[in-house]
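Support reply, case 0932

Customer input (verbatim):
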Amino acid sequence: MTKIKICGLFREQDIEYVNEALPDYAGFILHFPKSHRNIDLGKAKALRDRLVPEIRPVCVFVDQPLETVIRSAEYIQPDILQLHGSESNKYIEELKEKTGLTVWKAFRVRNSASMTEAMESSADLVLLDNGYGTGEVFDWSKVESLLFRPARNSRRFSRVFLEKPEFYDENPHRAAITKLRIVNTHRCEQHILRVCSRRSTRVFA
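Our regenerated output:
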């Protein structure tokens, strides 16, 4: 099953759009003023409370102190915490232990070293990305040799999510590995609804 996440909700109308489109996840960016989609805790809580129950809320953080993330999670009550900075495995493990929440970790695909770091992450799920939600496709040549090795290879990456702007249906390997489709709210509501209407069921190896 291809999952859809719409990230960067910051307006009441964004909630109206996602409640109509019914993606699997909706993301809120916190404590990251570099993003114009950054919102404070009060706003995030108000928007999160308006989500229909079918949509799982996700709080997104970048290199925040552990206690800041924990307090934010206690207040907003998300289902998932998504980390987009240089958070260590120790940080992730402690965060999971203290919150009891699922933790996703995003990694910028730059070279084999970044892929090795992602493969060794203690996060529940890993997201490969080209940047901070830019929607740009990363260089697939840097990951294909790891993602599509034979199953007998113990280092095959089997828990990957991908953030990218379009489905790669023309490439069966890339389509099969795409378990999460992320859309940022700088896209218009018609695009959001169109993406959600393209949800499809797939069988993963």
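We compared this against your earlier run and they match. Two observations from our side: Helices lie at 12-21, 41-49, 66-76, 89-99, 112-119, 144-147, 172-177, 189-197. The beta strands are 3-7, 25-30, 38-39, 56-61, 80-83, 102-108, 125-129, 160-162, 180-184. Please reopen the case if you see a mismatch on your end.
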